[in-house]
Specification:
It comes from Sphingomonas rhizophila. The chain has 111 residues and is of the alpha+beta class. It has a domain of 73 residues. It contains two helices and four strands, in the order αββαββ.
């Protein structure tokens, strides 16, 4: 009966390789203090750590969510700060935007 342990080992080995494995997908990070960042491909702003403070609005309506910046003087001091917060590029109308961050005047700062 020495054959039995070998058969069991082969069956376990083959069974292990037949198990589907879901790929782990991650992104580069760049989260701001609230645990949020912009998706540069879609323009969406989302949070990973339950932060954000604002409620997400439908992206189809074209509205943006709160970025956790104050409404009075809430512009980033420079593009390095916007990038560090994970908010670059900053679009006109979004909290954090300032004309001084938009060198070419196209409504998108820190591009």
């Amino acid at each position: 009966m020495k054959l039995l342990p070998g058969v069991v080992a082969v069956c376990l080995g083959v069974g292990t390789f037949g198990v589907p494995v879901a790929p782990a997908v991650a992104h580069g990070g760049g989260l701001n203090a609230q645990g949020c960042h912009n998706n540069r491909k879609t323009g969406d702003y989302h949070c990973h750590r339950g932060g954000g403070g604002g409620s997400a609005l439908s992206s189809s309506s074209g509205r943006k969510r709160s970025y956790g910046l104050s409404s009075s003087g809430g512009a980033f001091p420079n593009c390095a700060a916007a990038r560090a917060a994970g908010a670059a590029p900053v679009r006109e109308g979004q909290p954090g935007y300032s004309r001084r961050l938009d060198r070419d005047g196209d409504g998108v700062g820190c591009e």
